[in-house]
Structures are given as structure tokens and as C-alpha cells.
Amino acid sequence: MKRREALRNISTLVALVATRTGYEAIAEAQQQTKIFKLGWLGTGGLGAGVELLKRELRARGYVEGKNFAIEYRFAEGKLDRFPALADELVRLKVDLIIVSDPNAALAAKNATRTIPIVFTIGVDPVAAGLVDSLARPGGNITGFTQIAEVLAGKRLELIKETVPKLSRVAVLWNPQSATAQQWKESQLPARELGLQLHSMEVSSADKYEGAFKEAIKARSAALAVTQSALATANRKRIVDLAAKFRLPAIYTRGDFVESGGLMSYGPDRAEAFRRVAYYIDRILKGANPADLPVEQPMGFELVMNFKTADALGLKIPPIVLMRVTKVVK
């Protein structure tokens, strides 16, 4: 009797283990076959940032169409479109929202308190009201800050070193953007460098050419373009106008240089999207955005277009050349 009971108990235990193992296998299979729906809330159309993110996600085992898909919504430089686009993504019940503009991040945060949000933006996320602190973001949002305001002075320094005897610089900025702080942060460095700044305030694309004409009237001999959704959406137009008015220009991102701009200085974009992919992976695996500290860049890149330099008749000084990390020919 005792032997039969022992055998029965062993059989029951084996059955339970097998059942548990089966359930775990099913759960694991479901996890592996689940297609995560990501929402991308951006400024312009599909660009290098999207491809960089996909590449970094592939490195972490995410294959588009197999275990993730992306719903895209673009504001095309019109900041007032972000709230409605964010609401659309929420209604689609995406698993996570990715944003690359501070205004988009604010719109997404206002649209949902539950769907995780990951950003890569150029402003201080604490000052912008996105997170409680860099170390403990709180809420449903975290990401990577590109500290654009901090680098405003460095860009002025680089353009001054590039253009001999430079004394007047036009600064292109959007007063309606959350990145407008970059204009204010340019003031002190400009004084220290002995530069006079001309304010090019542009809040709509149809104002660009007029703003360039005013900059020339103000005897500006170079241009510094701040980061904004409007500038990103009109990248090629700004680059073409800088060439038309023969203004050597420094930008915040390398894609402006790839479009024909002279130079850019900013965080390594590959690093930024590598970290965004890291956040996405952690969150999809169950991490809470509130517990994932906001990161800041470790690497920076100075991108130079020598063809544009030649067209402007510029000979790049050795002190600048030695800092160049990427060349566009």
C-alpha cells in the first residue's frame, strides 16, 4: 500500500512538473511571438534616426515584422499637431512611444500616464517638466538628453575658429519651441568670444528667406542653427538658403551636413539611439521607466563638409581640422 501511494505521489508530482513546464514553455513562446507595437512621434519623415534605432534594436534581437512594428506620426514641423498625433498613438494602444523632440515628449506625456515613453531630446528634461530628476525620472517617461543648451556656446566657439575675423553671427531659433532656451544660452558665450549675435526668430517655414535677408542686412558673416522641430523638418531649405546667401553655418546634427551644410557639433547620434534601444528593450521586458535614470551623452562628433567649405572659399584652420570626427565629401 505504501509503495503504491509513493508511486502515485511521484506520478502526481511528475504530472505537476510537466504541466508547470508546459505552461512556462507556452508563456515563453507567447513572449517570443508577441509583436510589440511601438509608436514613433517625430518632427519630419523617415530619416537616419529611424534607421539607427532599427539597427540598434536588431542588435538586441528585435526584428521588424517578427516581434515589433512601428506606427509613425509626424508633425512636419507644426508644433500644434503633436497633441492630436500623440492622442492617435494612445488610441492605437501602442506598447511604448518614442519621441525625438521636447514638444513631442510633452504632448505624449500629457496624452498618457500609463504607456511608457522614451525620448532623445536636446533640452534639459527636468527644466522642461518631463521628469522629476535625471536619477529618478518618476512617472512613465525616461530617455536620453542631448544637452543642446549646454553646447550652444561650443558651437559659437567652433564657427569663430572656422571663419577668420568673425565678429557677427546670426542665430536661427524658434521662439515657440521648447528648445528656445538655446538662444538665451548663447548670450554669455558670445560676449566672451567677442561676437555680436543677430536674432533670427522663425516660427513658420515661410519666414525663412526673409530671416536670411535680414541677417545679411545686419552684416552677419556666419550662422548658428539651434535644434528645433521646425528646423529639422526644413533641413534642406535652411542648408540651401545658407548656401544661397553664402553664410558658413554650424548645426546641431550631422544630417544637416550630409544635406550640404558646412559643419555640425553635437552628441554622437549612434550613441543616442543605442541608448534609446536599451531603454526600449528594458521596458518591454518589464522595467519601470520611473526607475531608469535619464542618460547624458559621453561622446560628441564634429562633422565637416569639405565640398561646402570649398564652395564658400573657406580654408579650415588646423585647430578645427584636428577636432573633426567625421568628414562628408
Structure write-up:
- By secondary structure, the protein is an alpha/beta fold.
- It has 2 domains: 34-147 and 268-299, Rossmann fold (3-Layer(aba) Sandwich); 148-267 and 301-328, Response regulator (Rossmann fold, 3-Layer(aba) Sandwich), CATH 3.40.50.2300.
- The protein has 14 helices and 12 strands.
- It has helices at 2-33, 48-59, 82-91, 102-111, 148-162, 181-185, 187-193, 208-217, 229-233, 235-244, 254-258, 269-284, 306-311, 318-321, and strands spanning 36-42, 68-74, 96-99, 117-121, 141-145, 168-173, 196-201, 222-225, 249-251, 263-267, 300-305, 326-328.
- The strands form 2 sheets. A 7-stranded mixed beta sheet has the order 7-6-8-9-10-11-12, sandwiched between helices.
- α11 links the parallel β9 and β10 (263-267).
What's the helix and strand layout?
Blueprint: H1 2-33, E1 36-42, H2 48-59, E2 68-74, H3 82-91, E3 96-99, H4 102-111, E4 117-121, E5 141-145, H5 148-162, E6 168-173, H6 181-185, H7 187-193, E7 196-201, H8 208-217, E8 222-225, H9 229-233, H10 235-244, E9 249-251, H11 254-258, E10 263-267, H12 269-284, E11 300-305, H13 306-311, H14 318-321, E12 326-328
Parallel strand pairs: 1-2, 1-3, 3-4, 4-5, 6-7, 6-8, 8-9, 9-10, 11-12
Antiparallel strand pairs: 10-11
Helix pairs in contact: 2-12, 3-4, 5-7
